[in-house]
Amino acid sequence: MQRIAESWPLRFAGDPVRRYVLRLGQKIVAQVDPHHVDDWRFFVVRNLEPTAFAVGGNRFVVSDGLIAFVRNESDLVAVLAHEIAHQRLRHFCDQAPTDAKRIRYGSIVQHFDLDTERAADAEAVRLLELAGYDSCSMYEVLRCLSERPGAPVSQLQARMRSLKSSCTNRANMPHIGELEEIRSHILDESGTPIQRCR
Q1: Residue 100 — φ and ψ, nearest 5°?
Q2: Total structural domains in the chain?
Q3: Which residues form the Peptidase M48 domain (predicted)?
Q4: Coil, helix or strand for 110?
Q5: What mean pLDDT is predicted for residues 33-59?
């Protein structure tokens, strides 16, 4: 975390944006590790690129840019679930990328091989369903990312094809209200327009 904090300013523990992300992360963690929810750590960096990654040891990082980018709360939870899935599936034990690589490529697009990303996507869908969120949100996040300039479209489309059949539970839980407040907070602080998925 020190290298991340040196690269990007972290939001402090009492910050409303970080508290919001913590609550969402804990909703997912409660599905898989209900007796140790407080052992999982969620950090928010003040970076306007849509970024999220797991750093191992039950620690996760998302950016202001990701929070501003997603369509709704379910999409943000999908990203958190995907990163939690990497931890739960022990992907760090199999092929742990260095902290430097995670920082440089630390996005929700790709930081493991395609099969590993697909496994994390599938587990994220399962976690979304358990927590009562829209199981199609993981697919929608990948769709949004594939529309960004410079995105690795072929990798994202391969992941989307894998998820298409699991996109069955369209939960009516977009959770726009609180996310809009948090998004406004980020936009007011940054003073910069941020690209948003539609």
Answers
A1: -60, -40
A2: 1
A3: 20-93
A4: coil
A5: 94
Given strand 52-56, what is the order of strands in its sheet? 41-45, 59-63, 52-56
Dihedral angle sign, alpha carbons of residues 123, 22, 70, 148: negative
Q: Which pTM value belongs to this model?
A: 0.88
Helix 177-190 and helix 73-88, axial crossing angle in degrees, nearest 10: 90
Amino acid letter at 22? L
3-state helix, strand, coil in the chain (%, to 5): 60, 10, 35
Q: Would you say residue 97 has pLDDT above 90?
A: no
**Where does residue 175 fall: left (phi above 0), alpha (psi -120 to 50 degrees), or beta otherwise?**
left
Tell me 172's DSSP state.
S
Domain residues for the domain of 63 are: 2-189
Interhelix angle 137-146/153-164, rounded to 10 degrees, is 160
How many CB atoms within 10 Å of residue 173?
16
Of 165, 125, 159, the C-alpha closest to 144 is: 159
With beta carbons less than 8 A apart as the criterion, state whether 194 and 69 touch. yes
Is residue 198 included in any domain, yes or no? no
For 70-82, the DSSP string reads: SSSHHHHHHHHHH
Residue 109 pLDDT: 41
Residue 38 belongs to some domain of the structure: yes
- Assigned domain for 194 exists: no
Residue 106 near residue 47, CB atoms below 8 Å: no
Amino acid at 21: V
Angle among Cα 65, 126, 98 to the nearest 5 degrees reads 50
